[in-house]
TrEMBL record:
Transmembrane segments: none
Organism per entry: Streptomyces lunaelactis
Listed InterPro entries: Amidase, Amidase_dom, AS_sf
Domain Amidase: 57-182, 254-335
Family statement: Belongs to the amidase family.
PANTHER family: GLUTAMYL-TRNA(GLN) AMIDOTRANSFERASE SUBUNIT A, MITOCHONDRIAL, TRANSAMIDASE
Record's protein name: Amidase
GO molecular function terms attached to this record: catalytic activity
Length: 350
């Protein structure tokens, strides 16, 4: 259990400052007996929130021999915005900029991975809750196809996800949680289309520049073949809010039109690329009037799998994520395309 004890030591040392955890299960984790023949024997992982240990993904990881070391911070009461976390030691801190939030709602999971306390943490994503903190903490985050894995969310917007230090590290998660996992060989270059704002959002110019720069590096490395046709969706904000409020009929027209546009796009395109967020990590006082979810929640409505990979940093030291979206059900292909992107066009960290 060397890896588990190492993780517990890092948590004890780093978490008082970062406040990524709600609870740490020192004794249970360090004394847990695991069959060494299991595929994930002794792998320490964290779960999102106080109920995360009961999630489908956590149960599958446990069955594969992984060891839960604690539950991670999610937003506390008092705000309508969910891009922050409240852990045992206070507000969760972005490990790159202590004056900024890590994003959310999988805030603590992202910080636990980004700081090296654990290599894998579970998350859930109903509007960007995995991809946003992954982007703002400079790590990999995957939202699975809606309905692929069991979810307690009755609206159908939320799906299970995972946060890891790299896309390659997430392979173990997908192999574990999927009943049928088949290796996929990605043929390069991948046919892709880029959109800075999906036709309605207005991203921060520097965030857009960093994300676009990552796309250009991937094209130069032969990973992507970029289709110059523009991508335009209808703004999904009102439709998402209607579904969340239990009135899906109010957003049906926008949802249906965006589904038609995305079906047409993925008929001849393997990957849609956008900045993961329109903004850089905001301060602990909140995002103001800007929706950090502007570029993510369209794919909770449509159900497509989506990921965020590190794209680079703004001039003030904030991580930027590049969002990758694939066809429904193409989760393994999406992950392998993310692995290829990270391998061929790594970013330079400050």
């Amino acid at each position: 259990m060397t890896h588990v004890n190492d993780a517990l030591e890092r948590i004890a040392r780093l978490d008082p400052e970062l406040s990524a955890f709600i609870e740490v299960w020192d004794e249970k984790a360090s004394t847990r007996e695991v069959d060494p023949q299991l595929p994930l024997a002794g792998l320490p992982f964290a779960v999102k929130g106080s109920s995360g240990i009961r999630s489908y993904a956590a149960r599958r990881l446990l069955a594969a021999g992984a060891v839960p070391v604690g539950s991670t911070a999610v937003p506390g009461p008092g705000t309508y915005w969910q891009t922050w976390g409240l852990g045992a030691h206070g507000r969760t801190v972005n490990p790159w900029r202590a004056d900024r939030t890590p994003g959310g709602s999988s805030a603590g999971s992202a910080v636990a991975v980004a700081s090296g306390m654990v290599g894998l943490a579970t998350g859930s994503d109903g509007a960007g809750s995995v991809r946003i903190p992954a982007a703002w903490c400079g790590i990999f985050g995957l939202k699975t196809t809606n309905g692929l894995l069991p979810s307690p969310d009755r609206t159908g917007l939320a799906s299970a996800g995972v946060l890891t230090g790299s896309a390659a590290d997430a392979r173990a998660y997908l192999r574990c949680v999927l009943d049928e996992y088949e290796d996929v060989r990605v043929e390069l270059p991948v046919r892709a289309r880029w959109s800075a704002g999906l036709g309605f959002a207005q991203p921060d110019p520097e965030v857009e520049s960093v994300a676009r720069g990552a796309v250009e590096r991937l094209v130069a490395a032969g990973v992507l073949r970029l289709d110059p046709r523009p991508v335009a969706l209808l703004d999904p904000q009102d439709a998402w809010l209607a579904v969340r409020a239990g009135d899906p009929s109010a957003g049906a027209a926008v949802r249906g039109e965006n589904d038609r546009r995305l079906d047409a796009l993925f008929a001849d395109t393997e990957l849609l690329l956008t900045p993961a967020t329109p903004n850089r990590p905001h301060g602990h006082e909140g995002p103001g009037e800007l929706y950090s979810t502007a570029l993510t929640w369209a794919f909770n409505l449509s159900g497509h799998p989506a990921a965020s990979i590190p794209a680079g940093f703004t001039s003030d030291g904030c991580p930027v994520g590049l969002q990758l979206v694939a066809a429904r059900g193409a989760d393994v292909s999406l992950l392998e395309m993310a692995v290829a992107a990270e391998r061929h066009a790594p970013i330079v960290r400050p």
